[in-house]
Write a structure and sequence with these properties.
Layout lengths: L1 H21 L41 E3 L13 E9 L6 H13 L11 E4 L8 E6 L1 H9 L11 E3 L2 E5 H6 L8 H16 L34 E2 L2 E2 L7
Organism: Micromonospora echinaurantiaca
Protein name: DUF3152 domain-containing protein
Length: 244
């Protein structure tokens, strides 16, 4: 009986030590929260298949489908810049519809072809295109932008040489407190990133209540300006002071 009781006591002490050792204590004596699982290492394009509350995917396949066909040449004069449009697979977005939306923005008389400075045309052949406009999920756009040293945190769009990368979340949701319809933000984000491809830098809001220059970083806030999506206004190139 004594041996059995002694074994029982020893077994209980072993279990108690094991439990205490398994529970990390904070300095105040409360159990420390479990650290979140680190999960896998850096993911390849499209590896994260989580879905945002709005229903669009956070990550897609990481590969793209290019729009077929060509658009008419737009613009009266100037050098011709050919662009290609591509949509990430797995986004649920219609490739021809996105291409048509981009074409409409770049063909607008308030756009980058105003003033006879340049002409644009959409093409399907990557070898012919001067740059490609991508519609990519937040995760894929973040990884693509990071290849050029840009940190978007999966939130903003970006431009790298020859690549205009539109974040799917911004294309579908715009940004909080933008104060204009979604179509205005879409025109802005295309014109802003394409503007970088055309050599334009960032500009500042010229004053409270005035239209925001298209090269202002409107995604981060309007700074007192009102949303405006175009590089030309009332027949003139509209710009703010250059941001160093």
């Amino acid at each position: 009986m004594r041996r059995r009781r002694r074994r029982t006591v020893l077994l209980g002490l072993v279990l108690l030590v094991a439990v205490v050792g398994a529970v990390a204590l904070t300095p105040g004596g409360d159990p420390a929260p479990r650290p979140p699982s680190a999960g896998p290492g850096p993911m390849a394009y499209g590896a994260d298949q989580r879905t945002e509350p709005t229903g669009y995917p956070r990550a897609g396949a990481g590969s793209f489908t290019a729009a077929a066909g060509e658009s008419p040449v737009v613009g009266a004069d100037g050098p011709l810049r050919r662009y290609r449009v591509a949509v990430e697979r797995g986004t649920g977005q219609d490739v021809p519809a996105f291409a048509a939306a981009v074409d409409e923005v770049l063909a607008d008389p308030r756009g980058w072809t105003a003033g006879g400075e340049r002409r644009v045309q959409r093409v399907a052949d990557a070898e012919v295109a001067d740059f490609t406009i991508y519609l990519a999920t937040p995760r894929t756009s973040e990884l693509m932008c990071a290849e050029g040293g840009l940190s978007t945190e999966g939130y903003t769009s970006c431009r790298l040489p020859g690549k205009v990368i539109i974040n799917l979340a911004r294309w579908l949701e715009a940004v909080p407190d933008y104060g204009a319809p979604l179509e205005v933000y879409r025109a802005y984000v295309v014109n802003h990133e394409v503007g970088h491809e055309f050599g334009e830098g960032h500009e500042a809001c010229p004053g409270p209540g005035r239209p925001a220059p298209v090269m202002q970083q409107q995604t981060y806030g309007l700074q007192g300006c009102v949303a405006y999506a175009w590089p030309w206004l009332a027949g003139q190139r509209y710009a703010g002071e250059i941001v160093p």
